Amino acid sequence: MPEITSTYDADPSDEQISKWQKEQDELRERHETRDRLDFDPENLQEIKYVAGVDLSFPPGDEENAVACLVVLSMPDLKIVYKQFLETKLYLPYIPGFLAFREVEPLLELIKELKINQPEFYPQVILVDGNGLLHPRQFGIASHLGVLSDLPTIGIAKTFLRIPGELDSVSEIKNEYKKVLKKKGDYMNLIGTGSGTTYGCALRTSDNATNPVFVSQGHRISLQTSIKVVLALCPQYRIPEPIRAADLESRAYVRAQDAMLK
DNA sequence: GCGACAG
DNA sequence: ATCTTGTCGC
């Protein structure tokens, strides 16, 4: 049984932080950044099912979440499976450590899908948050990918600064505002210290001027991630699987509230 | 001391 | 993450 080492309200101790950092560093050794897929990256027609995951919360409630997993069929992007998990979270949101707060219920939903509806087991999962684009190159998308052994792509709606590597948020912002003119345009995010490509800012719609921040989660290259994400944005800035998981989990929370539960 | 800070 | 109001475009 996992030991509870921190209460919800308390700030995490330095010991807890180093413990989490060590766990991220260890799990990162199992992190694969090349394509290991069951479809041909040159032929996305081979993708049948793609999943999205997200969590929603009742207004003003940081602890009682609803986790959601949706599976969409390709290329029509219709929901063929959705499942929810009401869950209590025992940690606050701490930038850099999102996975320790949210990954467990998501793993549970993946496990349940594999047992109950294996025919819908996805070939790739899109995760709300970062993968490689992270201070220790191991965000929630990587974390979920390694622990589930599934290909994952990280999709962040806002940019996460990486100290010493991607420091100047305003410069990066100015640059991509200038460069990203139309859907499909992207700008790699390269660390100034190491030269590492952490991910990219990708414009996913002609209408939305703001990009999304795409980074490798697990078992997929950045180039393939970009192609997959673009195929999943026929209309909106947010890729359809994430958008569907977000809308469904929010609707679930609203329904909960209506029952005065 | 202050700002920054995936979700 | 969540709330909120209006505004613009199809």
UniProtKB/TrEMBL annotation:
It is found in: Cytoplasm. The keyword Nuclease applies. It comes from the Eukaryota. Its main location: cytoplasm. Keywords: Cytoplasm, Endonuclease, Hydrolase, Nuclease. CDD domains: Endonuclease_V. Signal peptide: none annotated. It holds the Pfam family Endonuclease_5. PANTHER family: ENDONUCLEASE V. HAMAP family: Endonuclease_5. This is Endonuclease V. The lineage of its organism: Eukaryota, Fungi, Fungi incertae sedis, Mucoromycota, Mucoromycotina.
